[in-house]
Design a protein that fits this description.
single chain, alpha/beta, Rossmann fold, Arc Repressor Mutant, subunit A, 5-stranded antiparallel sheet, 9 helices, elongated, phosphorelay response regulator activity, Sig_transdc_resp-reg_receiver, phosphoprotein, Regulatory protein VirG
Length: about 240
């Protein structure tokens, strides 16, 4: 089983395995509108046929499938070398079901019915973790930009003078999004989804406040540059080059 090397969220290949055609259509359409390449399967046999046509970056897998069930499929894929990550879906939302799925090798688990925006956020998070695990991430465990140093494991930001700058959870999440996508225009919606995931609906225009606070801390640190630029009618851009440390 081969894992695709294209792990960017905008072009990742998703395989949706669910015996409900309505769910397959809704999810594949939603993910397709967010830049993913989506194929579908109704059962394990169709899933194998889809995998034979080409590698995928992630499988969204329902537990209650006809024939070979999702748990058996998950166990088989997780035991294969370089198998794609799996997000399991199930109408059975009990903790024991979730734990069994995760113990069999699933990377995440969602109870059905689920909000498509939450599934989208979970997919992006799992793909980011897979990138780091496989050494394909644009940013390593730490990075440097314009004299600043950001440790993504310790969640620690140091100014060019070596002073630790305290960041709130929201500010750190925003900065991580920016350093992972430098010199690209990011809309408010993209920042919401990438930084806050399932909670983004409640974040609303507070994104501007978080960016204002983050800018102030970067300016106070003596960076001397316009690191986060406002792009009129479009969004924001993180301007410096980012180097993996």
């Amino acid at each position: 089983m081969e894992l695709s090397t294209d792990m960017t969220t905008s072009g990742a290949r998703i395989l949706m395995v669910d015996d409900d055609p309505g769910i397959r259509d809704v999810v594949s359409d939603f993910l397709g509108r967010h830049g993913f390449k989506v194929s579908t399967a109704a059962d394990a046999r169709e899933m194998e046929q889809a995998l034979e046509r080409g590698p995928v970056d992630l499988i969204v897998l329902d537990i209650m499938l006809p024939g070979e069930d999702g748990l058996a499929v998950c166990r088989r894929i997780a035991s294969a070398e370089a198998g794609p990550p799996i997000i399991m879906l199930s109408a059975m939302g009990e903790d024991t079901d979730r734990i069994v799925g995760l113990e069999l090798g699933a990377d995440d688990y969602l109870a059905k019915p689920c909000n498509p925006r939450e599934l989208l956020a979970r997919i992006r998070a799992v793909l980011r973790r897979a990138e780091v695990r496989n050494g394909n991430s644009t940013v390593g465990a730490s990075c440097e930009f314009a004299g600043w140093a950001l440790d993504l494991v310790r969640r620690e930001l140091r100014s060019p003078q070596g002073v630790v700058v305290n960041l709130s959870s929201g500010e750190f999440s925003l900065l991580r999004v920016f350093v992972e996508r430098p010199q690209r225009v990011l809309t408010r919606d993209q920042l919401l989804e990438l930084a806050r995931g399932p909670d983004s609906d409640a974040f609303d225009r507070a994104i501007d406040v978080q960016i204002s606070r983050l800018r102030r801390k970067l300016d106070d640190g003596g960076g001397g540059q316009d690191l986060i630029r406002t792009i009129r009618n479009e969004g924001y851009m993180f301007t410096p080059k980012v180097r993996r440390a």
